[in-house]
């Protein structure tokens, strides 16, 4: 059940919990065998949605930074569709240009390599 996919979006419970910033739910799902590399119909992982959700928020929302750390500790990384399509690069570039250090830190913690 922890890896079941929504028929409409292809998202798993881990995708939803990470996107919504629910660290307790993310931890419980991981303890129950949720797959961190599971991708939805768009090819995105829970880590991507956690970072992307943070990018779209106006202010710091409690939980997203901790969730990034938890997912990365569980083996998650940003790769594949996120990087190939340029979504992550664009998000990082926008954060850097806006001087939004908190957002840049979220992406760095998610494993994004930043240009010097």
TrEMBL record:
- InterPro entries per the record? ANKRD_45/46/60, Ankyrin_rpt, Ankyrin_rpt-contain_sf
ANK repeat residues: 9-41
Pfam families on file = Ank_2
Q: Which UniProt keywords apply?
A: ANK repeat
The record, for PANTHER family, names: ANKYRIN REPEAT DOMAIN-CONTAINING PROTEIN 60, USHER SYNDROME TYPE-1G PROTEIN-LIKE PROTEIN
Quote the protein name from its UniProt record.
Ankyrin
State the organism of origin: Suillus subaureus
């Amino acid at each position: 059940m922890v890896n079941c996919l929504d028929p409409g979006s292809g998202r798993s419970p881990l995708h939803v919990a990470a996107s919504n910033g629910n660290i307790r739910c993310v931890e419980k799902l991981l303890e129950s065998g949720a797959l961190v590399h599971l991708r939805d119909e768009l090819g995105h992982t829970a880590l991507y949605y956690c970072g992307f959700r943070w990018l779209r928020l106006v202010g710091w929302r409690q939980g997203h930074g901790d969730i990034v750390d938890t997912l990365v500790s569980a083996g998650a990384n940003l790769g594949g569709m996120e990087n190939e399509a340029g979504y992550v690069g664009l998000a990082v570039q926008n954060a850097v240009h806006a001087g939004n250090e908190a957002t840049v830190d979220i992406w760095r913690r998610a494993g994004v390599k930043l240009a010097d």
